[in-house]
C-alpha cells in the first residue's frame, strides 16, 4: 500500500508540474502562439509618445469589441517614440484616417488600444502606420496636477 501511495503522489505531482509549465509557456508567449496560427491577419504600426501598460499580447478593440492583439512594442531610437505593431484580422479594414488611443480599463484595470475608424474612402494597408494617436494618460500625474492647481488657488486667496 505504501508503494501505491508513493506512485499516486508522484503522478499527481508530475501532473501539477506539467500544468504549471503549460501555464508558464502560455503566459510568456504573449498571445504569439495564437496569432501565428491564423494567417488571416495583418499588421499596422502606431508610434505613441507613451505606451504605459501596453505590451505584446495587449488587447486591441474597436467599439469596445476585442479584434486583435499587440504583436510587439519597440522604442524608435531616432524619434524616442514607442512603436507598436498591431495585429488585426483581415476581415476588419480600417479607413486611412483612423485613430489609435491607449485606454484604461478602470482605476485598477489594465490598458488596451482602442481603434476609432475614420471616414476616409481608402483603407490602411498591411504595414501602414496609424498617424492619429493618443498615448497613455497617467492617472497619478493628472491627480498631482489637480493637487498642485488646488494648492496654488488656496495660496492666491
UniProtKB/TrEMBL annotation:
GO biological process terms held by the UniProt record: phospholipid transport
Residue span(s) of domain Mce/MlaD: 41-118
Pfam families for the chain: MlaD
Protein known as: ABC transporter substrate-binding protein
